[in-house]
Design brief:
about 160 residues, alpha+beta, five-stranded mixed beta sheet
Length: about 160
């Protein structure tokens, strides 16, 4: 077990299986020392636990927890191409999409779920640049979607 996975275990978390693609794309690709994940939905055991708009059917607190799940799924996607999460030199960028009710403006707080998880698991290596974007709808009517970009150490 890698040090990162040991840290996940300390936090009471386990790395899930990679979420299979919903369309014609790969969950993650590596280019040089960088891994780019596709947008990760908050899938748990192959299912979306809740759907709808944040600020409508989904509370901001629920959405923040879902963003944590997205980040876990993103780490699983990174591991699928990097082989070992201990190779993560740093998380470079996080982009979070929040399916938002028309009057909801708390997207940064929702995406904090992903950012805080990455910081808790990776420490300083988890600190990153970020965008938090409100959108009208996401695939499967998911409330949140997160993609990450990481830099790897040499193999």
């Amino acid at each position: 077990m890698s040090a990162v996975e040991e840290k996940l275990a300390e936090l009471g978390l386990t790395l899930p299986e990679v979420v299979p693609p919903l369309a014609a794309y790969q969950p993650a690709v590596q280019s040089g020392r960088y891994v780019y994940t596709s947008g990760q939905l908050p899938m748990v055991d192959g299912k979306l636990p809740v759907s709808g708009k944040v600020g409508g059917e989904v509370t901001p607190e629920e959405a923040k927890d879902l963003a944590r799940t997205c980040a876990l799924n993103a780490l699983a996607a990174v591991k699928s191409v990097a082989g070992d999460l201990d190779r993560v030199a740093r998380v470079v960028k996080v982009v979070g999409f929040v399916a938002s009710a028309s009057d909801f403006t708390g997207q940064p707080g929702v995406v904090n779920g992903a950012s805080e998880l990455l910081g808790a698991v990776l420490g300083d290596k988890g600190m990153h640049a970020r965008s938090a974007v409100g959108v009208a709808v996401l695939p499967l009517d998911a409330p949140v979607e997160v993609e990450i970009q990481v830099e790897l150490t040499e193999a």
